[in-house]
Design goal:
Strand order of the largest sheet: 2-1-3-5-4
Shape: globular
Number of helices: 22
Structural class: alpha/beta
Number of domains: 2
Order of helices and strands: HHHHHHHHHHHHHHHHHHEHEHEHEHE
Distance between the termini: 67 Å
Helix content: 55-70%
Largest sheet: 5 strands, mixed
Strand content: 5-15%
Length: 490
Amino acid sequence: MWRPLRASLVAAFFVLSAVFSFCRLPYDDEWFSFAAASSPDTARVLSTLAGDLHPPWIVFFDRALWHLFHDQRALCLSRLIASTAAITLLSSVAERRLRVPWAALAALQPIVFFYSACARWYPFLLLAQAFRAYALWSPGRRPRAWVMFVLGGIIGPMIGYVDGLFLSIDSAWWLARERAHGRLRSASATLFVLIAMDAAIFVLSPLFHEHYRLLGGLATGGARWMPGLAGWFVTGILGQSFLPGGGMLLALVAVPGLGVAVHTMATEPRMRSMVPWLIAVTLGWVGLTARMALEPRYALMLWFLVAAGMVASLRRRGGKRIASGLAVGYLAFAWLLMVTQRFSLKGDLNRLPVGDCVSVLGRTPVDLVVAPYPGTASNIRTACAPSVSVVTASWGAHYGFEAGDELAPIVRQLSTACSVLLVTVPVRDSSLAETNDAAERLMAASHCARESTTHAVRDPHAALKMRLDPEVSPWRVRSELWTCPGSPLP
């Protein structure tokens, strides 16, 4: 019974995630992936990646997919296939260890679901870690376990340098397991070959020298503190979806259920041996988050297993079942918030309600709308459908705005417009801020004059974000009206 139920739940996850991914607007990082995949200038792509601490192999993979299909959905579908395979493996482990047939429901944990088909590298990291988790904790035959561990050990560091830490943790448990079975020598030899392969892949990277220096700076850099760590842990467990203001306290109903889930995982006989490994993995993420300010989406495997513990606790009795039901109910509520893109810390950034169009575009007629960020431009076109052109930058410069022809589409349209509305996202400490500055410099260089500035679409989570960063803007959109010397569009 368990395998058919798992297959049904995983299939439902695949369909729901595909529909959600293909229907939603891409979020900020995905625009960079699409631009890097579709850019005809490989040298420019590599120069941009040189300053980004991620291996370049996933971008090469995306460029190959784009060459074959010329469709953003191909990139998303490749991630969804990887996530589905990972969830199938992790569900198998969780079912056996927690003794529940519905562990695959944990795939609907909001963070796991939202990022399962995103055009970034997190789903492939999830797959690599799922390969190794299956090899460590599944009773599968030895050759299959070895193949999966090696695959996970190769894919993980190729996708993200952060996986080097978790490969080290997994390798320690792998050696301990093989030693218990009298296979320490062969396991050590396998790990030696695996490390040599990972080192060779790193050295063969066209960005080896640049990333070697970046990694060295990271190793000697100062640690970041508690706000990022608290945000990673709390929003990770609860799915990054909260009602605004005092409604956020509703999330407290999930806290007792989390405690029951931890108790279930620690006391279940088959799960008990897995708990020290989970603690080590969690501490690894905690250490990285304190230093690098990683977001919850980097730890999809961890949130899946925590959610599986919550789901497994539903078979407890009395108050523990009630607490577990409230926790699972809250995650279901957070999932609904996320798929409707309301009050989700990431999802609501992808949504522009039609009622906000007047506050964004204003009532003054203009000849052109300039939105340097592609997400903002897509939102305006979809929700507001203005009668004038909406133009954006041609290069999604998420990791640093570089000199080039990114503003060429704006320049062409600007030369024929007298009244221009510049719509930007008010951000700091981001390359998007540099893009906004470049667009403003272009306006000034074109002899345009700023007439007025307004802010629109208040962030529903502004209070929370301003507690973590008092200087963050409470607004999602800034609209500036400019007058230019061009002739109006016919």
